[in-house]
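Onboarding guide, step 5: your first structure request.
Type a short instruction followed by the sequence, for example:

Predict the 3D structure of this protein.
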Amino acid sequence: MPFSFGRQLSFTEKTVTLNDERFRPACHSILNHSKVAPPQLSLPSPENGPFPLPMTPLINKPIVLVLNRNWQAINVRTPAEAFCQMATDVATALDIREDESMVPTRWEDWKRLPVRDRDFSVGTAHGPVRVPTVVVLSRFAKVPMKRPKFNARNLWERDGGRCQYTGRILRPGEGNIDHVVPRSRGGETSWENCVIAAREVNSRKANRTPEEAGLQLLNPPSAPRELPVTMLLRNVHGIPEWEPFLRS
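The system replies with structure tokens like these:
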């Protein structure tokens, strides 16, 4: 019998069901039987929930931290992807308990774990299955290297929150992105052509090069070096179980 999917409910509701063709193969693989109730995602009640999430299908939210076999954080996955990794023995989940102990648990045992008030879960005909917050890959041991993505936050970090023309430390709202070679004159939006500048300096520079505006850069802008991906991961949803693996 094919799966039947409903519409997403308000985030304040206890249960959310999905309406997305992309999840049908994943759900078939995860639940591994043909006669099941429509897949449902159960949310912790607002008073017990460990972290807030926007109104997006939970099974498509990147809320599962992936560790290599040395327990180093290397990626973030969705519950659907994590369940598939567990069902094929690519990964095991960590049963993180109240006393902060962590027990690696394989798929067959994971399906039988009780769902606590603070857990997210996937509902099936045989009962709810807890959504893991951390999984460990069985064979992969490397920590990939990656260059930080170009965006305003990372540019601010590269420049240390300092105006690259005056050297002044800027408070939030006092600076913006300056294109060294203006975009109207062919300048690219890239690591090598963008710096943080005080708003008044950027306004004075306007559509000119630093030389034309009588300004001098503290340092030539360049792309930051590649870093271990662990250093680039952020716990944007404030999931408590991630913290031991993201501490520097």
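Each response can be followed by summary notes, for example: The CA atoms of residues 26 and 80 lie 6 Å apart.
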